[in-house]
Amino acid sequence: MDNDARDGLRQHYEAVLSRLEKGLGMAGRKREEVLLLAVSKFQPADAVAALAAMGQMDFGENYVQEGLEKRHELDNADLTLASKLRWHMIGHVQSRKASQTAGNFCLIHTLDSVKLASAMEKHLCQVDAVQKVLIEVNVGDEDQKTGLAREDLHALADHVQSSCPHLSLQGLMCIPPVYDAGEEARPYFALLRKLCEELRTYTGLALPELSMGMSGDFEWAIAEGATIVRVGTDIFGPRPHK
Ligand SMILES: *Cc1c(COP(=O)(O)O)cnc(C)c1O
Predict the structure, then answer these.
(1) Is there an atom of ligand 1 within 6 Å of 233 CB?
(2) What is the pLDDT of residue 242?
(3) Which of 54, 84, 137, 203 has the fewest beta carbons closer than 10 A?
């Protein structure tokens, strides 16, 4: 990454950090209540390294293979820096990829079926590890979208609580049906918060995390209680094509 690219990245990153501060101020919330996740899908390892050198330690990846390869590259380039990074899985995980995914991320945001939970549990049991997870909810009731239907939320939580001792349920995640639409996404964030409150009562679990908000709408997610916002484009610029 050359100096111009690095300066551009720094400017983008600082603009996102100041939007974050402003959003927190408007919501009367503190900086430590919200984690900024830099979404690095399709971005090269050197862009991740450059952002990490600016102090960003939490990164989100959508594809298991790509994420693991990038981490390997970063380990080889600078193991000291790489060992400080925290990686999140934010993309859809197929059950046949469960064993590559479970145990390899600090948080998996996209648990969306009993089948996937069982596949992860089986692997985690073998390697004797506990994996923190969020359930992804299809808040727009969209046909083609990944994420669990709202009405199946209790059944999946029941399954995790009764049969998956190696999965630690931390909260909910959503991708609203409107993209880059600012305030229009807010009702979906409010819905996810409400679903999480209900699930807390139902399960008796603390469920502290709400992962919601992207480049075009994260201030509105913060206003509705997001604890993790996932920002790609506004930090890294447009994604290179794969
Ligand atoms: C790509 C992606 C993001 C980041 O989107 P931007 O609009 O680039 O900020 C956030 N969350 C998920 C699940 C994504 O796939």
Answers:
(1) yes
(2) 62
(3) 84
Cα 90 to Cα 37: distance, rounded to the nearest angstrom: 10
Structure tokens at 110: 């996209």
From residue 50, alpha-carbon distances to 7, 30, 81 in Å are: 10, 26, 10
State the pLDDT confidence band at 3, using cuts at 50, 70 and 90.
very high
Query: Alpha carbon of 178 to those of 181, 185, 199: distances in Å?
Result: 6, 6, 24
Nearest to 43 by CA among 59, 31, 30: 59
Tell how far the Cα of 212 is from the centroid of ligand 1, in angstroms: 10
Q: Whose CA is nearest to atom 13 of ligand 1?
A: 90
Given ligand 1 and candidates 19, 39, 135, which is best to mutate, with the most ligand atoms within 8 Å of its CB? 39
pTM over 0.70: yes
How far is the C-alpha of 12 from the C-alpha of 67, rounded, in Å? 22
Q: Where are the alpha helices (DSSP H) in 96-152?
A: 98-101, 114-127
Ligand 1 center from residue 174 Cα (angstroms): 11
